[in-house]
Design goal:
Layout: E1 8-11, H1 22-31, E2 36-39, H2 46-60, E3 67-70, H3 73-78, E4 83-86, H4 93-100, E5 105-110, H5 113-119, E6 126-129, H6 146-156, E7 161-164, H7 172-177, E8 182-185, H8 187-190, H9 195-213
Length: 214
């Protein structure tokens, strides 16, 4: 059964752990308010990725937080993950949906309005607007879309959206005000000395914006 809440979406990066375990940091982040977790680890073998996926699934299941796998449909199937996130250069969305079935969450990265128009013809569960600002944690992305880009994309899109790229407590509120349903972060939580506190601080910012918009 699908259960997605895009408010505070954590994307993993083990290079930022400073000796801590991935399970420890993700567990603290979820207790602090993270609503979705994407396992995105480019520098590991298929076997290691598979083992990491199961380890995170054990952490997330008690909290009913979906585990989303980046790119690897085989890993998503093998561990029965909550879903998959794909980019513009990954397997085409219709193929991924056929492989995973209708009950899995599938997110799609978009970088411009042309990508959004194509996504509008599909039943993706959400779009990831990438990157919003420049970021050192992802080097294979297009030029930053900025807040104006968020506004234009969310006006055009028929799907919920999450912004990713260079997001931190100082600009998180701006992303939500510009129209995104949530924020996706990497270093803002993964690098934080206290992931629980970092996550709860970001979640409070999001909640305040949403409260003021009501």
């Amino acid at each position: 059964m699908k259960k997605e809440d895009l408010a505070l979406y954590l994307v993993t990066d083990r290079s930022l752990l400073s000796g801590r375990s991935l399970e420890e940091v993700v567990g603290e982040a979820v207790r602090g308010g993270v609503t979705m977790v994407q396992l995105r680890e480019k520098a590991c073998s298929s076997r290691e990725f598979y083992e990491l996926a199961f380890a995170l699934k054990r952490v997330l299941t008690p909290y009913e937080v979906p585990l989303i796998i980046n790119d690897r449909v085989d890993i998503a199937l093998a561990c029965d993950a909550g879903g998959l996130h794909i980019g513009q250069q990954d397997l085409p969305y219709p193929v991924v949906r056929k492989l995973l079935g209708k009950n899995k969450i599938i997110g799609l990265s978009v970088e411009n309005l042309r990508d959004v128009e194509e996504a509008n013809s599909w039943d993706v569960d959400y779009i990831g607007i990438s990157p919003v600002f420049s970021t050192p944690t992802k080097t294979d992305t297009a030029a930053p879309v900025g807040l104006k880009g968020i506004e234009a994309i969310t006006r055009l899109s028929v799907h919920p959206s999450v912004g990713i790229g260079g997001i931190h407590p100082g600009n998180a509120a701006d992303i939500i005000r510009a129209g995104a349903n949530g924020i996706a972060v990497v270093s803002a939580i993964m690098s934080a000395p206290e992931p629980y506190k970092a996550a709860s601080g970001l979640k409070e910012i999001i909640n305040q914006v949403n409260l003021n918009e009501v």
